């Protein structure tokens, strides 16, 4: 194996004849399982040139992370590269020796993992964890070096911060620390596996901007793995789209986005709300619609227990007032901790109201008797975020959807069965699914079951708390369209809680923007998106990935 | 030596395969319906430890229910001192005790008391432990604080020591019997079950499906019994099976010490105790009831272990 190709003479340094930094050539990856071998990645070719940023896009299970892990030799013990070759800087690293692999990692290929919450060791100080990386790669590791690495990753007060533990860091700061570890040894290639998926959009933007600047300065190549096509197109030079373990399309980001060729890519581009917004749900009837919910000066305070029995009041929701129009969708947007979910929980009667009022159909809900509450719950139903947590794993789909009817003693056995079947039809699930258990369903199917359960009692208001945030973009698009269809058919009123402004633009009629418990802006979706009044709203809108592409497209 | 890649900026489009393109809603139903219990059964069916222990347990239960099938000899009457410490003879395959009773008949009939005390105490522990632990875990706050402290107090008292003290109280001595013994073992055995239930309940208490049930207007108790406890069933069943073995041993221990079942009742513990003085001359009288006790307890313990492996999804490899 010669490395002579690394030498770039003026003749060969042309843009089309350089040696790729990383090349996966017709790679297949096979996992051994108890039910036989599973080929997770098939015939996949991915090339990353020096200094280039390449994004792999795909839904969960498409093999995008597996392909990248193979390049670092980090496949789980039951997985192996069964076909093809992997080259790093001209060197075959398909089946490297342990020693070569250890030399590659950190020094040549760095990694920023997905989950900033679990990828830092909670018992060691941040500085120690950075120093460990430097030491392992034989680089100078004095305090000054460690602080410099953290500073480079955009962490202010690095000298003090390096002596703190991970739990003292916010999500964004942890991700910066992980970037510091990933880039500490000036690798030639940085693999970033969903580096910002767990973060708020504004933090995501800061982190990605910083990562861009850093890799530009150092000339680092980046292999970015993401499920967000908008983000990929915005950040990468080239985009590789994967589905079911295969590359379906790859090419320059702009070209691929504006002129997708493969039917899957076309569908994906159509489904991304930030790239191709479309109106979902009932027509806006303007002021003609009555307010079904009116919220006035709503306040929620939590007691935070301090030491020695002292407690301080924390205002999660502060003087919030807005109305929800009947048959329309009102969205509350904000970052985590903005109090948007707390408002929803108070409307659902799951949290007590500290002060202020919520009136539903002109009735103050906090003065309702137990009996009135019980009837109230028939009219207001929730759909939750996590399709894996919102269904009882011990109950079949049929029993889950039937339960609201049983609890409220609606109909007899036969009519309930008919109702469940109607509901399954409505959410486009086959009736045979009734005797399945949640663990057998996909995320999208589960969310459909949760919608069917919420609709069982013919509610007027449905509170969707991040109802589509955990779904893959295609599934998200389907569920949003289903919700829109149901609104048109049944005249439902939605309160839609989300952090994703692109989704809001598609489904909502009215928008409330919340920031640390306070309502900063209320208005129709057109007003808020076209003509935001508050800096915070502008800031949020700016952070939508792929937004600029949309405007130039 | 790899060929240098010529152009990397080209727009590559894969040929469209049948299973690609339109993603649609995947509504195909593959494989058979399955759930936790069906999956558990699937893995248990192939587990030799489960098969052996289940067969042994069924055998023991059969002996308890129909001792007459195994022996026509009476365990108590027809004891003739002329047979004392006698060797096996026709119709008396295991020989005779010091009192001239048929060892085989005594071992067969002795199973009933041990197993009944075991089942009775397990049932008591299940009812008391699951309710108390469920309430503590589900309601939290001061309910949990009080229950947990009481639990700690009982936890500090060893099962056998507590039972010895309580069985020495005259009222208990006079009413000694299967029910009394089961109650005494329940009193000192429930914290284990309560603690397991409490932690299992804590795990699911904040799940979104519980919030969904609350939004339906379901009462707290009906949520506890319909949604929370069924999800905690796995660990509860495992602990119940293992406790069964522990309680059978406890009964034998107490009877051996002379403060368990009254002497008039047949029990392996009594027989072991009675055979002790003749250990050198007639070891069979001690050997057979001990062996039967060990096999029974072992079968329940192994069953519990096998169930734990099958019901704990973390331990299961896909």
TrEMBL record, chain A:
Keywords: ATP-binding, Nucleotide-binding, Transport
Superkingdom to which the source organism belongs: Bacteria
CDD domains according to UniProt: ABC_NikE_OppD_transporters
UniProt xrefs under InterPro entries: AAA+_ATPase (IPR003593), ABC_transp_ATP-bind (IPR050319), ABC_transporter-like_ATP-bd (IPR003439), ABC_transporter-like_CS (IPR017871), Oligopep_ABC_C (IPR013563), P-loop_NTPase (IPR027417)
NCBIfam families for the chain: PRK10419.1, PRK11308.1
PANTHER family assigned to the protein according to its UniProt record, in alphabetical order: D,D-DIPEPTIDE TRANSPORT ATP-BINDING PROTEIN DDPF-RELATED (PTHR43776:SF7), TRANSPORT ATP-BINDING PROTEIN (PTHR43776)
Protein name: ABC transporter ATP-binding protein
Organism: Kocuria soli
Automatic annotation (TrEMBL), chain B:
Family stated for the protein in its record: Belongs to the binding-protein-dependent transport system permease family.
Topology versus the membrane: Multi-pass membrane protein
Localization per record: Cell membrane
CC terms in the record's Gene Ontology section: plasma membrane
A GO BP entry: transmembrane transport
Domain ABC transmembrane type-1 residues, every copy: 111-304
Principal place of residence: membrane
Keyword Membrane: yes
PROSITE patterns in the cross-refs: ABC_TM1
Protein name: ABC transporter permease
Originating organism: Kocuria soli
Keywords, in A-Z order: Cell membrane, Membrane, Transmembrane, Transmembrane helix, Transport
Transmembrane portions of the chain: 48-70, 115-138, 150-169, 175-191, 236-259, 286-307
InterPro entries found in the cross-reference section: BP-dependent_transpt_permease (IPR050366), MetI-like (IPR000515), MetI-like_sf (IPR035906), OppC_N (IPR025966)
């Amino acid at each position: 194996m010669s490395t002579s190709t690394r030498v770039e003479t003026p003749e060969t340094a042309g843009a089309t004849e350089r040696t790729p930094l990383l090349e996966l050539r017709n790679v297949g990856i096979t996992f051994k399982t108890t039910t036989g071998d599973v080929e997770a990645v098939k015939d996949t070719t991915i090339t990353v040139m020096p200094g280039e940023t390449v994004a792999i896009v795909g839904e969960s299970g498409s093999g995008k992370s597996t392909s990248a892990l193979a390049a670092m030799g980090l496949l789980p013990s039951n997985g192996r590269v069964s076909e093809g070759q992997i080259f790093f800087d001209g060197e075959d690293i398909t089946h490297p020796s342990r020693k070569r692999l250890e030399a590659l990692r950190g020094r040549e290929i760095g990694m920023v993992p997905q989950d900033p919450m679990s990828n830092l060791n909670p018992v060691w100080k941040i500085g120690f964890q950075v120093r460990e990386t430097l030491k392992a790669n034989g680089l100078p590791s004095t305090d000054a070096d460690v602080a410099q690495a953290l500073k480079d990753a955009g962490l202010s007060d690095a000298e003090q911060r390096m002596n703190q533990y991970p739990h003292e860091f916010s999500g964004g700061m942890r991700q910066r620390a992980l970037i510091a570890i990933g880039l500490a040894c000036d690798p030639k290639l940085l693999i970033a596996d969903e580096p910002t998926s767990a973060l708020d959009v504004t933090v995501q933007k800061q982190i990605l901007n910083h990562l861009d600047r850093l890799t530009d300065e150092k000339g680092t190549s980046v292999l970015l793995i993401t499920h967000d096509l908008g983000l990929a197109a915005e950040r990468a030079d080239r985009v590789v789209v994967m589905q079911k373990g295969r590359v379906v399309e790859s090419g320059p980001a702009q070209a691929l986005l504006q002129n997708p060729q493969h039917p899957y890519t076309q569908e994906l581009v159509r489904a991304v709300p930030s790239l191709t917004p479309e109106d979902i749900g009932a027509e806006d009837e303007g002021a003609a619609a009555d307010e079904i919910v009116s919220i006035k000066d709503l306040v929620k305070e939590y007691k935070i227990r301090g030491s020695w029995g002292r407690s301080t009041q924390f205002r999660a929701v502060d003087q919030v007032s807005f109305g929800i129009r009947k048959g329309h969708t009102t969205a509350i947007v904000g970052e985590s901790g903005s109090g948007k979910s707390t408002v929803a929980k108070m409307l659902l009667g799951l949290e007590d109201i500290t002060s202020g009022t919520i009136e539903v159909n002109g009735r103050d809900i906090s003065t309702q008797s137990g009996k009135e509450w019980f009837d109230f719950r028939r009219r207001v139903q929730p759909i939750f975020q996590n399709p894996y947590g919102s269904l009882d794993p011990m109950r079949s789909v049929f029993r889950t959807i039937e339960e609201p009817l049983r609890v409220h003693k609606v109909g007899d056995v036969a009519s309930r069965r008919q109702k469940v079947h109607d509901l399954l039809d409505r959410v486009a699930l086959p009736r045979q699914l009734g005797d399945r258990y949640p663990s057998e369903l996909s995320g999208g199917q589960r969310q459909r079951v949760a919608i069917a359960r919420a609709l069982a009692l013919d509610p007027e208001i449905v509170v969707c708390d991040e109802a589509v945030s955990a779904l893959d973009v295609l599934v998200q698009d389907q569920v949003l369209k289903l919700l829109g269809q149901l609104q048109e058919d049944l005249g439902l009123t939605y309160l839609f809680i989300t952090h994703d402004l692109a989704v809001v633009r598609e489904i909502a009629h009215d928008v409330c923007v919340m920031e640390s418990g306070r309502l900063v802006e209320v208005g129709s979706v057109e007003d808020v998106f076209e003509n935001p009044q508050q800096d915070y709203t502008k800031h949020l809108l700016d952070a939508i990935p792929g937004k600029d592409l949309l405007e130039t497209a | 030596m790899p060929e240098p890649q010529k152009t990397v900026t080209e727009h590559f489009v894969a040929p469209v395969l049948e299973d690609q393109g339109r993603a649609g809603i995947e509504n195909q139903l593959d494989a058979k319906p399955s759930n936790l219990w069906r999956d558990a059964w699937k893995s248990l069916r192939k587990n030799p430890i489960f098969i052996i222990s289940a067969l042994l347990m069924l055998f023991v239960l059969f002996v308890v229910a129909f001792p007459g099938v195994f022996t026509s000899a009476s365990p108590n009457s027809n004891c003739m001192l002329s047979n004392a410490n006698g060797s096996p003879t026709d119709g008396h395959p295991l020989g005779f005790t010091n009192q001239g009773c048929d060892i085989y008949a005594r071992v067969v009939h002795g199973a009933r008391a041990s197993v009944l005390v075991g089942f009775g105490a397990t049932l008591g522990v299940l009812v008391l432990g699951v309710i108390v632990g469920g309430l503590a875990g589900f309601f939290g706050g001061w309910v949990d604080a009080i229950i947990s402290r009481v639990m700690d107090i009982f936890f500090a008292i060893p099962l056998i020591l507590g039972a010895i003290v309580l069985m020495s109280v005259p009222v208990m001595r006079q009413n000694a019997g299967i029910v009394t013994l089961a109650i005494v073992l329940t009193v000192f055995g429930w914290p284990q079950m309560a603690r397991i239930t409490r932690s299992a309940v804590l795990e699911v208490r904040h799940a979104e499906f519980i919030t969904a049930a609350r939004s339906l207007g379901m009462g707290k108790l009906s949520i506890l019994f319909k949604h929370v406890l069924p999800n905690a069933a796995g660990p509860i069943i495992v602990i119940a099976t293992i406790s069964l073995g522990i309680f059978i041993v406890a009964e034998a221990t107490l009877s051996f010490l002379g403060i368990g079942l009254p002497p008039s009742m047949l029990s392996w513990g009594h027989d072991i105790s009675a055979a002790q003085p003749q250990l050198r001359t007639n070891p069979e009288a001690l050997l057979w009831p001990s062996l039967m006790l060990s096999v029974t307890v072992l079968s329940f313990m192994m069953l519990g272990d096998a169930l734990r492996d099958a019901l704990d999804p973390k331990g299961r490899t896909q």
